[in-house]
Amino acid sequence: MSELKLPSRSEDFAEWYNQLVLRAELADYAPVRGCMIVRPYGWALWENITAALDRRFKATGHVNAAFPLLIPKSFIEREKSHVAGFSPELAVVTIGGGEKLEEPLVIRPTSETIIGHAYAKWIQSYRDLPVLINQWNSVVRWELRTKLFLRTLEFFWQEGHTAHATAEEGEAETRQMLDIYADMAVRDAAIPVIPGRKSDAEKFAGADVTYSIEAMMDDGRALQAGTSHNLGQNFAKAFEIRYLDKNGQLQNCWTTSWGLSTRFVGAIIMVHGDDQGLILPPRLAPHQVVIVPIYKNDDEKIAVMDAARKIRAELVNAEIRVKVDEREGSSPGFKFNDWEMRGVPLRIELGPKDVAKGSVVLARRDKPGKEGKTFVPQAGIELAVDKLLDEIQRALFDRALAMREANTFEPKDYEEFKGAVERGFARAYWCGNAECEGKIKEQTKATMRCIPLEQAGGPGACIFCGQGAKERAIFARAY
Ligand SMILES: [Zn+2]
Fold it and tell me: Which of 72, 127, 176, 469 is the least crowded, having the fewest Cβ atoms under 10 Å away?
């Protein structure tokens, strides 16, 4: 494994990504084209993402539940733009128990319809609102071009679905969840994101407004890392989600939905990884620290392993996620490379000399070679490690932000714009016309990623047609 180097990112970013996912043992291909097997190491990373989100969801009053995988096909057809958007991607079950089904069932591509059906039964009065439910599950969309984590037929995610009494509450919920995604991305994943609004062409099928967080990958392309939809009354009308208000009047609810998926693992890989492999942000890393014992004979082994276990216990006590690499028959050099490939933020090297001196070597994954190495005493090691993990977390964010800034351009004209989207993000005025957006996409392969919530400067002229434009948008080629 350690004998084969990854292709460098500059040489072949796509192949670097594919090989890294396989060799870091994050995921594997499945027998059905486009499906994904998430391996334990990849799942441990996803679990830490889910924990970081679930904590935030619950702190804001949301609860979890589980809705069925199978949805009557007629449900999907009830909301017009929803069916138009999802029909081409549906997996449909027509036979069950050897019998042709009376009504075909779809495997959920998302659960607005079946949850809307349940909400219509559960919600009677204004006293029943708001309903704030999330579910952790997987969904199926029949994608044609697939890539592990980024676009797979089945993917894992959470989908939140809420119902409210007023339009203002629905919008506030939509924005709150966008903020939660942004906060998790920045603070836990060390990924800078741009929160913004989608264009009509890019919004969710059935939403009034879609918001997203957009991140720049190390090759300059964009990745939509999470979305939050204000569904207005579209699904409430289609599924009769209604309540009696304080005056006894029947009203339609206002609903939202929001999701973040295993794509986010792809974002972490492509934002932080280097030519040696993965680099994981300490807050999400399955192992924050790996201890590699170094010894040549049994006497040394006894002393080194004894010290390693003591250090491990200290770190576990301090709630640091640590692994001792006790594999027999692999050299320390092999183990170093292996954990570098898997992106463990901090490595502790421990040999007989270190044991004698009562010290260890700490090696940072984000700073290869001598630059990232420090010698620290074994006494109080948990404090040194904790401090260093914080530093690594911050350094990864700073580096990702600097990369994004260096590759974000404000083109003066369309010629400059075309050059900008070859390299990264173009921040440019857009008149709001879908025709300009469509032609830009056709001519440059760049899509309108979002209209950032934060806008600097007044109005300007559309980068494509020159007409008056109120806001700047982010354009980029995207995953
Ligand atoms: Zn225009």
Answer: 127
